[in-house]
Write the structure tokens for this entry.
Amino acid sequence: MLGGTIINQRQHMGLQKLSTLAAVAHSTLGPHKNYKFIQDEATGESTLVSSCLRILDNLDLSTCAVGQLVHETVRAHHEVYRTGSGCLLFFAGVWSQAARLCLQQGIPTSRVVAAMKEGLDLCIDVCKQSSVSFDALCASTRKRVTEAPSDSKVSKEKRHVKLSRHFCNTGLESTSVLDPRLPDVAHLADGLSHGCNDAMRLVIQASRIQSEDIQSSVFDVTKVTTCLLPGFPENHAHVSPGCVVLLNADQTSVAHHLKDKPLNAILISGDLSNAYRHLGFNRPTGIQYVSNQSNMSDVSKDKEWMGKVLALLSHLEVDLVLVSGLVNKDVIQLCAQHCILAVGKVRVSILKEMAIATGAVLVTYATQLSKHCVGKGIRVSIWREIPSHEGTPLTAVNLHAVGSTRLVTVVITSPVHGKVQTLEDHFWACAYRLHHALKDKAVLPGAGVTELFCIRRLAKKAQAENPRDGTSGSNPYLGIVLHLLTDSFMDYLSAVMANSNGISQVIARTVVNQKLQDVNSISAEFSQLVLDSDKDVHLSKVFDNLSIKQESWRKALNLVLLVLQTDAEIITGVDESKQGKHAGLMFL
């Protein structure tokens, strides 16, 4: 029996590692992020982080297969959504624990997988039913506006009308929705800020700049970029039309020479270096070649390549080179000597907008350039001189394409250098929440309301599968699995509430249980309450994203099931169909 226990523990190792690693997400949940310092024991250097992705980025996961899988999953989700990673990792942890508990009770792996998928389907269906369409939001907004008393009536019962702080007091016209298909962006953004109010204000400013020319409520996140300026107070954060980038001394001298002139520009997707190869053709790193003789061939090849590129740029009369990846320092200096401004780390989406506006063709390698690839119409203007940036003077310039009016740069500042990246993450999280809300044309009730609906649905289904009269439902294991999934949502809400209010998990869980008793009064038909003018959308002033929440749950469950199946196929190496020959073993 003892030997069987040891084997079982080994079989569960992958799920154990997943739940342990997912514990780092607990402090990142909720509107109030807890900052953490991660210190490198070898070098003594430390990093300030407040998101699970940044924590994983700074952990050494090279020796842990599960850790690498978790990191890749979270990063892939972050690249698309920029938010929801903490939710993903948390549920991956609690669902891995649920799977282990099921296995310890002797539930076959296939039944665990099927039941957990069915539970997720129930939660996805809850999201669809409780989502609020933009038509409902717009109708509610219009109803509140039309029912507001006129100025004459106010001056006569002296009634005070409380308008949203996002609305101006210049008349009722200023509160109307310009595009009848979309709610007011500022009102929607307020509900999606999730505690990052300063970051969301920058998002709203960016949206207003984009909507000036077309007179509608829009926000195109692909036309937005960020510029980080550590060393300045946080209230110096700024939103500016165009693409603002930082230049060093060599680049600055060229920018002053080219400012306010129409420039010939080329756009490159990737690194501007001889060693760069696009995805799929990158050479392996870490390989060293040993020779008895000094080999300077790489250096000579780089110089030869730079000479060819410079000759090509001069032939095409190029003034500006914009690159999505890195630009070699030697290339920058060589270009500067020939009055060519080379700028790296420009978002690919920005390059694509520049290409549309200027007629340029986006290429991967500089050697692909020809006359038809050169774009015309980009201008460089000096945005701000920065006297000292980590001891080095820098200059911020604005790259503006004449044919594009929707490029926006958000300048993020902080006197704490280690906090700048966190503030940038907060901005992008807010920006993508608004972006996906407009894309989904619907939102979910936030502040834990959707999760409460899921708990109620799962508990109801579990009760149907395991009635109290002792009879059994269609699946003898389904009720057990759904009960564990219910607990996982309770754990999530408790963690969020504990982080938000600074209370213990025990007290938070008690509060969640009380809220669960009131879920019937909240009603699952949230969209109907939105249309009720008496409720005035006070049910939930916080919104969640429909697609982001669903994808976070899906990726979390896929991660758990993948680790579960890997444990079964790699660690045990036994056939579940031959259980009679392996008595005493618990099969995954």
Notes: Residues 2-132+444-582 form a domain with the GROEL; domain 1 fold (CATH 1.10.560.10). The chain has a mean pLDDT of 79. DSSP finds 21 helices and 14 strands in the chain.
